[in-house]
Each structure stands twice: as C-alpha cells, then as structure tokens.
Design a protein that fits this description.
The complex is a heterodimer of chains A (118) and B (139). Chain A has four helices and five strands; from the N terminus they run E-E-H-E-H-E-H-E-H. Chain A has 118 residues and is α/β, with parallel strands linked by helices. Chain A has one domain: Transcription Regulator spoIIAA (2-Layer Sandwich), CATH 3.30.750.24. Chain A has a five-stranded mixed β-sheet with strand order 1-2-3-4-5, sandwiched between helices. The longest helix of chain A is centred in the middle third of the chain and has 16 residues. Chain B has a single domain, classed as Heat Shock Protein 90. Chain B has four helices and five strands. Classes of the chains: A alpha/beta (118), B alpha+beta (139). The interface between A and B is medium-sized, with 24 and 29 residues.
C-alpha cells in the first residue's frame, strides 16, 4: 500500500512531516500515529510539508484539528507549507487558514518558530 | 440518460476505487479538473459517512455508487442498507466557533454541501438509504 506516506526530518530543532499521496479516512490513522509519536517525545514544533500531498478529505483535516490544541498548549505549533492549489482549496473551504499558519515554503515556516532575537 | 455503477465493500481502503470511478465518469461527462476534484471529494465524504455511521465499520456490507449522466446534470447516487444517517439534517457548523473550539467531525457534510450543487437524502423503507449528489455542467 503506497497510497500515503509520511517522511520525517528535523531542521533546526523543528520536526518536519512530509506527506505524500492520498490522505483520506483510510490513511488518516497513519498521520494520527505520526503526531502521537511526536507528542510522546515532547516535540511540539511541527511543520507539515504538503508538497507531495495529492489529496485530502475531511478525515485528514480532522487529524490536524485533533492535535492542534495540545501542541499549542505546550507552546508549540503545527504549521503547514507547500500546498497545491487543490489541497489548499479544501483547507480554505472549511476556514482552516483562520486557525493554521500556511506558508508557501518550508523554510519560512521553520524560521517563524524563532522570532528574531535582538 | 446513461447510468454506470460500482459496488464496493464498506471499507475505507475502497474509497480510492470509488474516487477513481467517479472521477473518470465526471471527466467523460465533460467536467474540468477542478470540478472533477470537487465531485470525487464529495463522494468520498458521502461513502466515508456510510462506512462509519450507516454501517458502523462493518466491512461485510456493500455500498453501491451510481452515476447518472443526464443533460447537463451529473448525479451520483450512493446507496446503502445500513442505519439511517441523514447528512442533509446535520447542521452546518459555525466554522469560526468550530475552529476556535478545536472540534472535529461533521466536516464531511459541510464539505459535501459546499462542493456540490444539490445534496438530497431519501429512504426506501426496508430497502435502502440513498444520498443523491448533483452537479450541473457549467455552460
């Protein structure tokens, strides 16, 4: 089953989840597990790179909803990047841009975790 | 009027087959990429609801998806024989309130209504539940 894959990396202490393929009710539990494992290991700075995400349904959106509160309570955040217009439209239809910071580019999102220290 | 159908077991791994089937029919009907994506997503949401709510995740049950291509009207009828779940009666959540309280669930119905031109639900007593999703071909 290669319809949905998650890659994990770390950049400057920020955890990057790279989503690839189709995120629906069948594959959403995989993303749920990935978030659970990050939270278990106290990693709350999370960037989700959607460059290779071809499809998302409400089951996938529900996963972001399920974790955002805990992550923010721990002073972290889930930021989203590199969405195709098709995937962005689904987020937009449900008003998610009000709740999540969405960036064109991964580095922008990573930098956002570190307010300029002067 | 032309009708094509697919029958799948009530399992989430079959959603991809339903999306492919409906996308292909929508393309053949003349829709562009954006509308094809919308229709496939709406049908995915409808079938996900059937799997989770009408059939309570019983994988032995069957979902039937019929595509009826009329004149300028593309209808997808999703039939199941499970518990009644009328998505047209699910109130659209106030999204601002919804998001600020970090709710989840109920989003699928909201999406279906936003993506399609019409969403209708009917019950044939003792037979099946039917959800009819309609989209008009832009002129």
């Amino acid at each position: 089953m290669s319809e949905f894959k998650i890659g994990q990396r770390e950049v400057e202490n920020v955890n990057i989840l790279e989503l690839k393929g189709y995120l629906d009710a069948h594959t959403a539990p995989k993303l749920e597990e990935a978030f659970q494992s990050l939270l278990r290991s106290q990693r709350f700075r999370i960037v989700v790179n959607c460059r290779d995400l071809s499809y998302i349904s409400s089951a996938g959106l529900g996963v972001f909803m399920a974790f955002i509160e805990d992550v923010r309570n721990a002073k972290g955040d889930i930021k989203l990047t590199n969405m195709s217009p098709k995937v962005y439209n689904v987020f937009d239809l449900l008003g998610f841009p009000l709740l999540y910071e969405i960036f064109k580019d991964e580095q922008e999102a990573v930098t956002r975790f570190f307010p300029k220290a002067k | 009027m032309k009708t094509v159908s697919i029958q799948v077991e009530s399992r989430t791994e079959r959603l991809i087959a339903v999306r492919d089937f409906v996308s292909e029919a929508a393309r053949a009907f003349g829709f562009g990429d954006e509308d094809i994506s919308k229709i496939a997503l709406a049908v995915d949401e409808a079938c996900t609801n059937v799997i989770k709510h009408a059939y309570r995740s019983d994988p032995t049950k069957i979902i039937r998806v019929n595509v009826i291509a009329g004149t300028g009207t593309f209808e997808v009828v999703i039939q199941d024989e499970g518990l009644r779940f009328n998505p047209t009666q699910v109130q659209a959540p106030d999204m601002k309130e919804y998001l600020t309280h970090f709710r989840r669930g109920g989003l699928g119905v909201h999406l279906m209504k936003s993506l399609m031109d019409r969403v209708e639900y009917s019950i044939a007593p003792g037979k099946s539940n039917e959800l009819r999703l309609t989209k008009y071909l832009p002129r």
